[in-house]
Specification:
It is built from nine helices and no strands. With 198 residues, it is mainly alpha-helical. The protein has two domains: 98 residues; 92 residues.
Protein backbone atom coordinates (compact mmCIF):
# COMPACT_ATOMS: atom_id res chain seq x y z
CA UNK A 1 0.00 0.00 0.00
CA UNK A 2 1.33 3.44 -0.89
CA UNK A 3 1.28 5.18 2.45
CA UNK A 4 1.68 8.60 0.83
CA UNK A 5 -1.39 8.11 -1.38
CA UNK A 6 -3.37 6.84 1.62
CA UNK A 7 -2.42 9.98 3.53
CA UNK A 8 -3.31 12.19 0.56
CA UNK A 9 0.22 13.58 0.37
CA UNK A 10 2.64 13.83 -2.55
CA UNK A 11 5.68 11.56 -2.25
CA UNK A 12 8.35 13.88 -0.80
CA UNK A 13 12.03 14.11 -1.56
CA UNK A 14 13.49 12.83 1.72
CA UNK A 15 16.69 14.78 1.23
CA UNK A 16 14.75 17.96 1.76
CA UNK A 17 12.27 17.02 4.50
CA UNK A 18 10.99 20.54 4.30
CA UNK A 19 9.34 22.28 7.20
CA UNK A 20 6.20 22.60 5.07
CA UNK A 21 6.00 18.85 4.52
CA UNK A 22 6.67 18.12 8.19
CA UNK A 23 3.95 20.61 9.14
CA UNK A 24 1.53 18.79 6.81
CA UNK A 25 2.35 15.49 8.47
CA UNK A 26 2.01 17.04 11.93
CA UNK A 27 -1.47 18.27 11.01
CA UNK A 28 -2.75 14.96 9.67
CA UNK A 29 -5.90 13.80 11.49
CA UNK A 30 -4.88 10.12 11.12
CA UNK A 31 -2.13 9.98 13.77
CA UNK A 32 -1.16 6.35 13.18
CA UNK A 33 -0.84 6.97 9.46
CA UNK A 34 1.40 9.99 10.15
CA UNK A 35 3.61 7.84 12.42
CA UNK A 36 3.90 5.15 9.71
CA UNK A 37 4.66 7.76 7.07
CA UNK A 38 7.45 9.36 9.11
CA UNK A 39 8.92 5.98 10.03
CA UNK A 40 9.01 4.96 6.36
CA UNK A 41 10.69 8.21 5.36
CA UNK A 42 13.27 8.08 8.14
CA UNK A 43 14.10 4.42 7.49
CA UNK A 44 14.66 5.29 3.83
CA UNK A 45 16.97 8.13 4.80
CA UNK A 46 18.84 5.80 7.17
CA UNK A 47 19.36 3.29 4.37
CA UNK A 48 20.95 6.04 2.29
CA UNK A 49 23.17 7.18 5.16
CA UNK A 50 24.32 3.63 5.91
CA UNK A 51 25.97 3.60 2.49
CA UNK A 52 27.82 6.86 3.17
CA UNK A 53 28.25 7.68 6.86
CA UNK A 54 28.39 4.81 9.32
CA UNK A 55 28.51 6.97 12.47
CA UNK A 56 25.54 9.16 11.54
CA UNK A 57 23.50 6.16 10.45
CA UNK A 58 24.22 4.32 13.69
CA UNK A 59 23.32 7.32 15.83
CA UNK A 60 20.09 8.11 13.99
CA UNK A 61 19.10 4.43 13.84
CA UNK A 62 19.37 4.20 17.64
CA UNK A 63 17.22 7.30 18.10
CA UNK A 64 14.60 6.02 15.64
CA UNK A 65 14.57 2.57 17.25
CA UNK A 66 14.03 4.05 20.73
CA UNK A 67 11.09 6.14 19.55
CA UNK A 68 9.53 3.21 17.67
CA UNK A 69 9.98 0.91 20.67
CA UNK A 70 8.36 3.40 23.05
CA UNK A 71 5.48 3.78 20.61
CA UNK A 72 5.01 0.00 20.31
CA UNK A 73 5.07 -0.34 24.09
CA UNK A 74 2.48 2.42 24.29
CA UNK A 75 4.82 4.38 26.55
CA UNK A 76 4.07 7.55 24.59
CA UNK A 77 1.07 8.83 22.65
CA UNK A 78 0.96 9.02 18.85
CA UNK A 79 1.14 12.82 18.95
CA UNK A 80 4.38 12.67 20.93
CA UNK A 81 5.79 10.02 18.59
CA UNK A 82 5.04 12.30 15.64
CA UNK A 83 6.82 15.19 17.35
CA UNK A 84 9.87 13.05 18.12
CA UNK A 85 10.02 11.70 14.57
CA UNK A 86 9.69 15.21 13.14
CA UNK A 87 12.51 16.36 15.42
CA UNK A 88 14.64 13.43 14.23
CA UNK A 89 13.88 14.36 10.60
CA UNK A 90 15.06 17.91 11.30
CA UNK A 91 18.26 16.62 12.95
CA UNK A 92 18.94 14.48 9.87
CA UNK A 93 18.44 17.49 7.64
CA UNK A 94 20.80 19.58 9.81
CA UNK A 95 23.40 16.79 9.80
CA UNK A 96 23.38 16.89 6.00
CA UNK A 97 24.04 20.66 6.05
CA UNK A 98 26.74 20.30 8.72
CA UNK A 99 29.33 19.19 6.19
CA UNK A 100 28.84 22.35 4.16
CA UNK A 101 29.16 24.47 7.30
CA UNK A 102 32.43 22.73 8.17
CA UNK A 103 33.69 23.04 4.59
CA UNK A 104 33.85 19.26 4.15
CA UNK A 105 32.69 17.00 1.35
CA UNK A 106 30.31 14.14 2.22
CA UNK A 107 33.25 11.73 2.30
CA UNK A 108 35.34 14.02 4.50
CA UNK A 109 32.38 14.55 6.83
CA UNK A 110 31.98 10.77 7.19
CA UNK A 111 35.60 10.44 8.37
CA UNK A 112 35.26 13.58 10.52
CA UNK A 113 32.25 11.96 12.23
CA UNK A 114 34.25 8.77 12.73
CA UNK A 115 36.91 10.81 14.55
CA UNK A 116 34.48 13.04 16.41
CA UNK A 117 32.78 10.16 18.25
CA UNK A 118 35.50 10.63 20.85
CA UNK A 119 34.76 13.73 22.94
CA UNK A 120 38.30 14.00 24.29
CA UNK A 121 39.66 14.16 20.73
CA UNK A 122 37.36 17.08 19.97
CA UNK A 123 38.49 18.91 23.12
CA UNK A 124 42.19 18.22 22.59
CA UNK A 125 42.43 18.72 18.84
CA UNK A 126 39.58 21.06 17.96
CA UNK A 127 37.50 21.23 14.79
CA UNK A 128 40.20 22.55 12.49
CA UNK A 129 42.63 19.72 13.21
CA UNK A 130 39.87 17.11 12.92
CA UNK A 131 38.96 18.59 9.52
CA UNK A 132 42.59 18.31 8.40
CA UNK A 133 42.73 14.70 9.57
CA UNK A 134 39.46 13.89 7.78
CA UNK A 135 40.71 15.40 4.51
CA UNK A 136 44.00 13.52 4.75
CA UNK A 137 42.23 10.26 5.58
CA UNK A 138 40.02 10.55 2.51
CA UNK A 139 43.00 11.22 0.27
CA UNK A 140 45.09 8.44 1.81
CA UNK A 141 42.37 5.82 1.88
CA UNK A 142 41.22 6.65 -1.64
CA UNK A 143 44.73 6.16 -3.05
CA UNK A 144 45.49 2.99 -1.07
CA UNK A 145 42.36 0.86 -1.34
CA UNK A 146 41.43 -1.50 -4.12
CA UNK A 147 38.11 -3.17 -4.86
CA UNK A 148 39.01 -6.24 -2.80
CA UNK A 149 41.06 -4.51 -0.08
CA UNK A 150 38.74 -5.66 2.72
CA UNK A 151 39.37 -9.29 1.72
CA UNK A 152 43.16 -9.03 1.55
CA UNK A 153 44.78 -9.01 4.98
CA UNK A 154 48.03 -7.38 3.81
CA UNK A 155 46.18 -4.43 2.25
CA UNK A 156 43.92 -4.03 5.30
CA UNK A 157 47.00 -4.02 7.53
CA UNK A 158 48.68 -1.41 5.32
CA UNK A 159 45.63 0.88 5.44
CA UNK A 160 45.40 0.39 9.22
CA UNK A 161 49.05 1.46 9.59
CA UNK A 162 48.47 4.53 7.40
CA UNK A 163 45.40 5.55 9.44
CA UNK A 164 47.24 5.13 12.74
CA UNK A 165 50.20 7.10 11.41
CA UNK A 166 47.92 10.02 10.45
CA UNK A 167 46.20 9.96 13.85
CA UNK A 168 49.55 9.94 15.70
CA UNK A 169 50.95 12.75 13.56
CA UNK A 170 48.08 15.04 14.51
CA UNK A 171 48.16 14.06 18.20
CA UNK A 172 44.90 12.11 18.32
CA UNK A 173 44.53 10.84 21.92
CA UNK A 174 46.53 7.57 22.08
CA UNK A 175 44.01 5.81 24.33
CA UNK A 176 41.31 6.40 21.69
CA UNK A 177 43.30 5.63 18.54
CA UNK A 178 42.29 1.97 18.28
CA UNK A 179 38.56 2.70 18.41
CA UNK A 180 38.98 5.59 15.95
CA UNK A 181 41.01 3.39 13.62
CA UNK A 182 38.32 0.69 13.66
CA UNK A 183 35.59 3.24 12.90
CA UNK A 184 37.67 4.85 10.15
CA UNK A 185 38.30 1.43 8.56
CA UNK A 186 34.59 0.61 8.74
CA UNK A 187 33.85 3.95 7.08
CA UNK A 188 36.57 3.32 4.49
CA UNK A 189 35.00 -0.03 3.60
CA UNK A 190 31.68 1.70 2.90
CA UNK A 191 33.15 4.47 0.81
CA UNK A 192 35.60 2.30 -1.09
CA UNK A 193 32.71 0.14 -2.29
CA UNK A 194 31.05 3.30 -3.61
CA UNK A 195 34.33 4.53 -5.15
CA UNK A 196 34.72 1.21 -6.96
CA UNK A 197 31.25 1.45 -8.51
CA UNK A 198 31.30 5.20 -9.08
Amino acid sequence: MDIFAAAGLPKPDISILSDEFLAEVRGMPQRNLAVELLQKLLKGELATRRRKNVVQARSFAEMLEQTIRRNQNRAIEAAQVIEELIELAKEMREARARGEALGLSDEELAFYDALETNDSAVKVLGDETLRKIARELVATVRTNVTIDWTLRENVRAQVRVLVKRILRRYGYPPDRQEVATQTVLEQAALLSAEWATG
